[in-house]
Amino acid sequence: MITALRHFLVDSWLGRVLALLVFASFVVLGGTFFGIGGGAGLGGDVVVRIGGHSVTPMELQQAIQRQIAYAIQQNGGSPEILKAPQAREELGRAALRTLILTREGEVAGQRNGLTPSDDTIRAVVFSMPVFQDPTGKFDPQKMEAVLKGNQLDHQSLVNETRNMLYGSATTFNFGQGMVAPTAQVDWMVNFFTHGRVVDLIRLPFSLGDVATQPTDEQLKRYYQNHLWQFHVPEYRHARLVVMTAGSVAKTLSVSDEDVKAAYDQKMKDPAEAARYNRPELRTVEVLAVTDKTLAQKIAAMWKKGASWESLQKQHPSAIPASLNDARMTDFPDPMLGKAVFATGAGVVSDPIQTAAGWSVVHVVSVKPAYQANFTDMKDSLREDIANARAVPLLKERTRSLEEEVAKSATLDQIPADIGAFPLAGTMDEKGNIPGGEPAPLPGDAALREALLQQVFSQKKDEPPHIVTQPDGSAFAVLVDNIVPAHQGSYEEMGDKVKEAWLDDARKHAMEQRATSLYQHAKTDGLRRAVDGQSEASLLQKDEHFSRLQQRQDVPALILRAAMEQKEGETVMLQEGDAYWLVNVTGSYEESPTLTASLRQNIMTQMAEAYRADLRETLGMSYTRSAPPRHFNAGLFNDINNRVFSSVSGRLGQ
Known about the structure:
This protein is an alpha+beta fold. Helix content is 50%, strand content 17%. It contains 22 helices and 17 strands. The protein has helices at residues 2-11, 13-27, 57-74, 85-111, 118-127, 140-149, 154-172, 182-193, 216-225, 245-249, 256-268, 270-276, 292-303, 308-314, 334-340, 374-407, 445-455, 494-524, 526-530, 556-564, 592-625, 633-650, and strands at residues 48-50, 53-55, 194-204, 231-232, 235-243, 281-289, 319-326, 352-354, 357-367, 420-427, 467-468, 474-483, 486-487, 539-545, 570-575, 578-589, 628-629. The chain has a 4-stranded antiparallel sheet with strand order 14-3-16-15, with helices on both faces. It has a 4-stranded antiparallel sheet with strand order 10-5-12-11. A 4-stranded antiparallel sheet has the order 7-6-9-8. It is globular and about 85 Å long. The two termini are 39 Å apart.
């Protein structure tokens, strides 16, 4: 059930649509804020004005940092999402929009006489759990420690609390009684809980039977008929020198005292310490059923060596779930969590009674609890400090690089101690070396794309010059050789021509074989079509497909065919490097327990989406009463780029 619900909310297209409905309410309006008056007449201390209020650079910087932290959290703790070029602008806009709506709520509250008193603000602060001791009482010393750890003062806390109260009163508390329409919920539950039982077979082109080798005449004719396959792209040899925040960081020295101070600071902050101190983790496989007798049967078979996958096929009513590196709190049922952590590595448990029925657990592996110490963390902390210090140095180092490039027409005399690193190589316009492998270009996708564009737009032997990127990284290019694109001759491409001919012949042979099996399967079913044939070993029987539990081992086209064709039908499809035959043999419904959980989740998600729409409408009405003015686009871009330069340095880009 855990895996199923996770797939619904994260991997399924409709789960993503529901999440997008909520997210869209936070970004769609953002577009209306970026066409408003320019920054004429503004200094560098105001990003945008709302009524008598201003969004300052420091507020925007902190908001973007919070937005980045939230994005990483939503991505399972991985920063990979930040490497997408479009993420920088989208996250920056989302952060600015949140600030604007906060200010709009404040203006609307003041306009309607909603002004939180000092007593109200004090009561809210005293009730915040983060400032309370274990007995639930307000602890002023704990408040001071939290504020200091987050580089905040008392006035900042008061301001943030006041903004929160304004937002609650004017925007975020509206629509709490909203419920999802029953008809829509029923349709979605029905859509996701009806699955298909399928027989299928994958027939790779490479298995096509080609009895004879091609003659020279056949190969020449194939070459003449497929000239486009043997076109040699333009290749350029270039010398490059690249500087990023990460490369500058590698030139910086960080003292042991600074590293120890950073370690002590992190360990004093409970939230930071929790990132490094890890409890015991377990990777598990679970099968959940409603009947104790069935659970005992599954446990007995599992203990005798049956695999998790085979048990799922033998008992389709059992709900599978798998968790990697799970904490005890990751298990929704406390009894299940306790039982999992009482079971040893490699052991299958006896049936465990839970609130939803019975579960059997196989503990695949155990990672013991880990307490971070200074010795383990000092290298990563030293790198973090260096990355943070490199960001403000990047512009200064870029000026030094510019001076060195001006003195070195061949880019072979650039000092290493400024943080620039040289590289050279031959590549085509797609960034591949002559052998076809990707060239080892540095940085993120945006930097690699910029490097390629410069290499293929710069003239041969043109003096190198510095090119800077939005994140502050810089590079220079010298193109010293160009091999023009040309049509490869038959003699030059002989081996490739033969391999292409054979690939085409194998594909044609497999197409004929797949068509023959398909014609048989249309009348007798796929099992009879391959019975006694060499392809019988490739047949996958009684495979279960549903929209709720997306399978990653089958292409999307095949999944769609399994769900959309009628029971008893067989279809032949080409996907990737193979033909597929798909025969729907039956259908099934998810368990009542899973269906009930799914219904509750859909109702919650849809209600939140409707609430978000209501808040969006309120936010639009507030902006009409007090529209944002004097947006300083240059200042916004500068702050956003600087924040992400710091992130890029931390990621070693």
